[in-house]
Amino acid sequence: MAPRTDPLTFEVVELIGAVVARYHEEYEQAAAKHALTGAQARVLGLLAREPMPMRRIAQQLKCEPSNITGIVDRLEGRGLVERRPDPADRRVKLAATTETGLNTALRLRGSLDFASEPLAGLSHQERTVLRDLLQRMLGITAAASPE
């Protein structure tokens, strides 16, 4: 393994940091266009994939469950999210998007140019290699993601 002071490793880390910063900046701007905070937009985006308990949302976003409760409360107040019983365990409440919430999440996702613009310059094969390398860095198995 290359030492952490290796110039190439340092350059890669700096580039990853620049990509992350650019992503967060655009995500915040896109969220604001939908009158959402970045945190609200991230929760809505997660719930657009599938309903989930607040503890799992907190784990996914790496924050305290109490923070998620407040975010879900605000999204629920706007009619974007609802709480419903988990069919597998009626003691657990799932947060789920409403139809309006799902439409908002889809519009939000569609307004994010950051991912589409730079990636458009890469071929399908290059995007696949990039995805596979990122998954490898994060310890995600290739079978877990669709082509």
Automatic annotation (TrEMBL):
One of its GO terms (molecular function) is DNA binding. The keyword Cell membrane does not apply. Residues 9-139 form the HTH marR-type domain. It comes from the Bacteria. GO terms for biological process: response to stress. Keywords: DNA-binding, Transcription, Transcription regulation. This is DNA-binding MarR family transcriptional regulator. InterPro entries: HTH_MarR-typ, MarR/SlyA-like, Tscrpt_reg_MarR-type_CS, WH-like_DNA-bd_sf, WH_DNA-bd_sf. It comes from Streptomyces zagrosensis.
